[in-house]
């Protein structure tokens, strides 16, 4: 009985001693900045992804080695070293920031595998990123569409305006004809007046 109790005390001492030495049993990774970011094709990102490393109680873990791994093909990129893997050490707040990523020109979604390790503890997570597709260029027909429509509207307006002007002219002409006095007939215009010889009558004195 005493031996069993002694063994239990020894096991607890070893466990407590391991904890007192600062060994971390569990690591946790959380992306705190840059998750789901959309990048332009061929762009350079100086700072775009930050993760935080904590222990099982939620306390920041300083000095953890955090590695970032990019895909070998498809939508991807390289780090400043020209490689697809980079390692960053977490700071006093347990944060590790990925810098200097050069994206390729392949549009689509890609994932960055993140692994954190310190002593015997380690953890992994995946962050999804995106490279946007090239902007769709406007076709010549669509690009020329608005000017053609404007010219067509201008022509239509001119035609309609001319028609309206003709209608107004016809209406004004009709009003002028009806309101003006009737012109004399050719016969009346050709008639001349003649005065005969004067006749003088003198009475008796």
Describe what this molecule looks like in 3D.
31% of the residues lie in helices and 32% in strands. The chain has 205 residues and is α+β, with helices and mostly antiparallel strands. It has a domain at 25-131: Immunoglobulins (Immunoglobulin-like, Sandwich). A hairpin with a 2-residue loop joins β8 and β9 (121-131). It is elongated, with a radius of gyration of 50 Å. The model is unreliable at 1-20, 136-160 and 163-194 (pLDDT under 50).
Strand segment count: 9
Terminal-residue CA separation = 195 Å
What would you call the structural class? alpha+beta
Question: What is the number of helical segments per DSSP (H or I, 4+ residues)?
Answer: 3
Low-confidence stretches: 1-20, 136-160, 163-194
Under CATH, the homologous superfamily of the domain at 25-131 reads Immunoglobulins
Which oligomeric state applies?
single chain
CATH architecture field of the domain at 25-131: Sandwich
- Percent helix among the residues? 25-40%
């Amino acid at each position: 009985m005493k031996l069993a109790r002694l063994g239990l005390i020894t096991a607890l001492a070893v466990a407590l001693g391991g904890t007192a030495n600062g060994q971390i049993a569990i690591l946790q990774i959380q992306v705190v900045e840059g998750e789901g970011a959309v990048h332009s094709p061929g762009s350079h990102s100086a700072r775009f992804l930050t993760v935080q490393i904590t222990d099982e109680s939620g306390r920041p873990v300083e000095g953890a080695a955090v590695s970032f791994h990019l895909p070998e093909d498809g939508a991807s990129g390289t780090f400043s070293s020209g490689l697809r893997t980079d390692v960053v050490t977490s700071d006093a707040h347990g944060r590790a920031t990925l810098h200097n990523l050069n994206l390729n020109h392949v549009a689509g979604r890609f994932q960055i595998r993140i692994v954190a390790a310190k002593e015997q503890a380690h953890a992994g997570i995946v962050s999804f990123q995106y490279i946007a597709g090239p902007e769709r260029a406007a076709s010549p027909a669509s690009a020329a569409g608005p000017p053609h429509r404007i010219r067509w509207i201008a022509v239509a307006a001119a035609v309609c305006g001319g028609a309206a002007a003709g209608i107004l002219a016809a209406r004004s002409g009709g009003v002028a004809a009806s309101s003006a006095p009737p012109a004399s007939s050719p016969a009346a215009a050709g008639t001349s007046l003649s005065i005969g010889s004067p006749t003088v009558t003198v009475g008796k004195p």
